[in-house]
Amino acid sequence: MITSTANQQVKLLVQLNKKRKLRDERGVFLVEGPKMFREAPRERLEKAYFSESFYEKHREALTRRIQAEKLDYEILDDHVFKTVSDTQTPQGVLCIVRQQESSLDAFLKAEKPLLLLLENLQDPGNLGTILRTAEGAGVTGVILSKGCVDLYNPKTIRSTMGSVYRVPTLYTEDLCQTVKVLKKHGICSYAAHLKGANFYDQENYQSGTAFLIGNEGNGLTDELTEQADALIRIPMEGQLESLNAGVASAILMYEAYRQRR
């Protein structure tokens, strides 16, 4: 059992929680809680850490899984575990999981792909919610600009509720170029925009479709907007100018899902 916060593994976990560069260099991210531990794909699970009290409480079940899957694990003193946890109320289990990025080619090979392209999103909760909704709506994949918040930010990971394991994602250097590639493959791109000519539910999303969602405060850049095949808008009453990026994404994804059902 690790009983000191000076332990090198403990120091590494603290830094992995804080530093995107280190996460990317090592190609890993951290997840917390029994649910995220339970759903983590075995082939991507590098190591698990349990608080002493959590391990003692669930010793029998944990022992079965550890033995069956030959898991690498450590037990941490409760005080030490609190040091490595990113939450106010630690749940007693933390894991190192390998990152996994998909490819544009994989998205293009899908039958009638439904894609979500995110430009410069900054709120980790928004991004996590979008991934969770994308799984529910059957989205093929999510493509993020380099200016987006880190997908593996601990707050983003918590908001995905496990969908980060299952929704294919890809960071791209140039979203405009990505849209051009999609267009060449017959995938129509729709920009969520206040100047949209049609409401979102007046378009047909039953063939290859990509929705473009912009920054929470500024929306899509003019450069990316110009690449879209069509601008669409969500009707709103009252004095609202726009909806939360996560909410807007959900409305569009589920309209496509509805049409395809």
Summary of the model, kept short:
With 261 residues, the chain is an alpha/beta fold.
Question: Can you walk through the features of this model?
Answer:
The structure is a single chain. With 261 residues, the protein is of the alpha/beta class. The chain contains 12 helices and 11 strands. A 7-stranded parallel sheet has the order 7-6-5-10-8-11-9, sandwiched between helices. Strands 1-4-2-3 form a 4-stranded mixed sheet. Helix 8 links the parallel strand 5 and strand 6 (141-145). Helix 8 runs parallel beside helix 12 (245-260).
Write the layout of secondary structure elements.
Layout: H1 8-18, H2 20-26, E1 28-32, H3 34-39, E2 45-51, H4 52-57, H5 59-69, E3 73-76, H6 78-84, E4 93-98, H7 104-109, E5 114-118, H8 124-136, E6 141-145, H9 154-160, E7 169-172, H10 175-184, E8 188-192, E9 198-199, E10 209-213, H11 222-227, E11 230-233, H12 245-260
Parallel strand pairs: 2-3, 5-6, 5-10, 6-7, 8-10, 8-11, 9-11
Antiparallel strand pairs: 1-4, 2-4
Helix pairs in contact: 1-6, 8-9, 8-12
